[in-house]
Amino acid sequence: MMPAPMSPLAHSSPLRPPLSSTSRSHLPFMAVSGGAASSSASAEAEQDISRGRGVPKEAPVPQLEVIGSKRALLSQFASLKMSYRPFPVIGWNRHVETIFAAFFRSLPRVQFRRECLRTRDDGAVALDWVSGDERLLSPDSPVLVLLPGLTGGSQDTYVRHMLVRARKKGWRVVVFNSRGCANSPVTTPQFYSASFTEDLCEVVKHVLKCYPKCKIYAVGWSLGANILVRYLGQESYGCPLAGAVSLCNPFNLPIADEDFRKGFNKIYDNALARSLKKIFKRHELLFVGLHDEYNIPMAANARTVREFDEGLTRVSFGFKSVDDYYFNSSSSNSIVHVQTPLLCIQAANDPIAPSRGIPREEIKENPNCLLIVTPKGGHLGWVAGEEAPFGAPWTDSVVMEFLEHLHHERPATSANSSCEIDGVQQPLSSISVQT
């Protein structure tokens, strides 16, 4: 949900009690460090940054929290063989990490071919494909659809890095720029929202029409992740996607809205509101003469995302109030219906997608879902790993290993096939993600 400048070459800008031992991962590199002492140490480290004292490079870091019946498959991932280590100083404060990633992460150069897709309601979205892939890749190459965060698009650094990594694996990649984002055209008096999945439905159908022999996967960030998970739940057993990844998903929008209006988060709120107003003012003439419950002046002069949603968004999509919009648009309500293999990656200290809003129990109960919560990461940050601090987010390698696993997985050849997990012989079918 971080704001993104509209220049096509600009960088992007923008608690729950400890789990019982039965729900924690037993993998040594994913041991869950809970308890008040760990939380206190983390809080003190962040306070040290804010006071300018810095943090020791070797300060203890709690390991990954992993939830899901198929968490054993993560032991195969090379990217998870080592402990999660935030980059010194930058990675120890959630706001420093969020802002650093937004302004200083490198921007890979990519040549796009834009396709404007007309939707059924006469609207339009912009699909940015990698130029030349229509000739270089085979028709059955897997396709990865990328859904950026609120006001984000193909100009964002986190989108570009994921695109480049997938492209190196031979995947065809397309960025789904929502209405008005990344200079996508707006042809009707309606943008998009956290609840609106119709455009994604049409994009997936269009990709399948273009490449009927391929498997399609999707990755979404922040608001894009919320839309993606809602789509998965909505389509349920009929979902055409072979797999999906949700990153820094706000999940529970009332909780996210509550935290968004506190302390330093007001900076993000104001920045996002400015980005929304920029998009709106470019297409303001489309809304002239609209009556009903619209409050166009409120949207045009919004100082917060909530004001923009109250004046415009919730009316466009038929909600009686902004609180009604947030409650009924939360993707946490959709997890129970998801039948597609889904990996969710969150940061415990995300200022915009609060940890207490993560639907842990729902994810735990759904055999198709898997959750990784990193101890640090901020929002759209994850400045850690081999490419830190200026390169790709730590999450990218995990995402691609998960997607590659899904794409290359084969059914067990025998009902008796098994392997040993935590010292117990288990059938392969009980630990592999089914596509």
TrEMBL record:
<dbReference type="InterPro" id="IPR000073">
    <property type="entry name" value="AB_hydrolase_1"/>
</dbReference>
<dbReference type="InterPro" id="IPR029058">
    <property type="entry name" value="AB_hydrolase_fold"/>
</dbReference>
<protein>
    <recommendedName>
        <fullName>AB hydrolase-1 domain-containing protein</fullName>
    </recommendedName>
</protein>
<feature type="compositionally biased region" description="Low complexity">
    <location>
        <begin position="7"/>
        <end position="22"/>
    </location>
</feature>
<dbReference type="GO" id="GO:0034338">
    <property type="term" value="F:short-chain carboxylesterase activity"/>
</dbReference>
<feature type="domain" description="AB hydrolase-1">
    <location>
        <begin position="142"/>
        <end position="380"/>
    </location>
</feature>
<comment type="similarity">
    <text>Belongs to the AB hydrolase superfamily. AB hydrolase 4 family.</text>
</comment>
<feature type="region of interest" description="Disordered">
    <location>
        <begin position="38"/>
        <end position="57"/>
    </location>
</feature>
<dbReference type="InterPro" id="IPR050960">
    <property type="entry name" value="AB_hydrolase_4_sf"/>
</dbReference>
<dbReference type="Pfam" id="PF00561">
    <property type="entry name" value="Abhydrolase_1"/>
</dbReference>
<dbReference type="GO" id="GO:0047372">
    <property type="term" value="F:monoacylglycerol lipase activity"/>
</dbReference>
<feature type="region of interest" description="Disordered">
    <location>
        <begin position="1"/>
        <end position="22"/>
    </location>
</feature>
<dbReference type="InterPro" id="IPR000952">
    <property type="entry name" value="AB_hydrolase_4_CS"/>
</dbReference>
